[in-house]
Amino acid sequence: MGRYFVCPVYESPKFLISVGRDEDAVDVIQKIAKRNGKTSTLTIEDLRSAALPYLDSDSVSEGTAVTKLTTMELVKSTFEDLSFEHVRSLFSTPRLAWSTSLVIFCYAAIGLAYPLYNGFLGVYLSQKNSELNAGASLDDTYAAFTYQAACGVPGSIAAAALVEWGKGGRKFAMSFFTVGAGVILFGLTQAKTSVQVNALTCVASFFQNAFYGVLYGYAPEVFPTPSRGTGDALASASNRITGIFAPVIAIYSNASATPDGPVFASAAIYVA
After folding, report:
1. Model-level pTM greater than 0.85?
2. CA pair distance 102, 257, nearest whole angstrom
3. Mutual orientation of helices 94-118 and 121-132 as an angle, nearest 10°?
4. Axis crossing angle, helix 94-118 with helix 169-188, rounded to the nearest 10
5. Is 20 left (phi over 0), alpha (psi -120 to 50) or beta?
């Protein structure tokens, strides 16, 4: 709701032009310029003048300079500039290749560890509280879930403060919060009371929110500027691909024999 009413995100001008909505594209560009304290001189006439070399003779004679691409033309346009030049540049030197590989590994590892724990947290809390307290109810599970969610908010604030710390910066913040999350989850597997479970899940949420915020801000900074989008895409893709295996591990592996199994596996990956 906030995205829509408070800080609206405009449609892509490239998309608007591709479907023949030239006026809307110009309007969006002018709104973006105004939001940034600038003035855009782009007009609909400028767009139509630029489109003239690509129009057929009938469109030119009729004075209709609306360029609406077909679905196949849009797909072809998307892939016409596809090359591995930006991928190669991310591995162009040994140090850069090592840096890129580590960032992708971090994204892939967290892509597996995070849903392995958080995706099944509700099930874990229900089973664990039932083991520790025979009178545990659904309300207890939702209460525990709410506590840990609330404790994640200050984690993001702590991360924002720690990355500006001159002696450590982003790499220290990532290491500290990620290892901290792993240690806390290891402790969670040994919890003996519902109070311990609630306390440890709250602290784990704090650490997880912190390192996620730092990692997503850090990765784009270390990729070469011309290839930053490609680097982000590779990292994000690795994050999503490994996330596919989280339910497989949590449900079909030996880790599913106990509610602590997926938590232990998640903790080990965080430390790694």
Report:
1. no
2. 32
3. 50
4. 30
5. left
- As a whole number of angstroms, the distance between CA 113 and CA 128 comes to 19
Give CA–CA dist 183/178, Å, rounded: 9
pLDDT value at position 100?
93
Considering Cα of 71, then 85, then 107, then 151, what sign does the dihedral take? negative
- pLDDT above 70 coverage of the chain, percent: 85
Annotate the chain with three-state secondary structure. CHHHHCCCCCCCHHHHHHECCHHHHHHHHHHHHHHCCCCCCCCHHHHHHHHHHHCCHHHHHHCCCCCECCHHHHHHHHHCCCCCHHHHHHCCCHHHHHHHHHHHHHHHHHHHHHHHHHCCHHHHHHHHHHHHCCCCCHHHHHHHHHHHHHHHHHHHHHHHHHCCCCCCHHHHHHHHHHHHHHHHHHHHCCCCCHHHHHHHHHHHHHHHHHHHHHHHHHHHHHCCHHHHHHHHHHHHHHHHHHHCCHHHHHHHCHHHHCCHHHHHHHHHHHHC
In tens, the pLDDT along 113-152 reads 988 888 888 778 877 777 777 556 777 778 888 888 888 8
Q: Could you identify the residue written with the tokens 């403060």?
A: 161
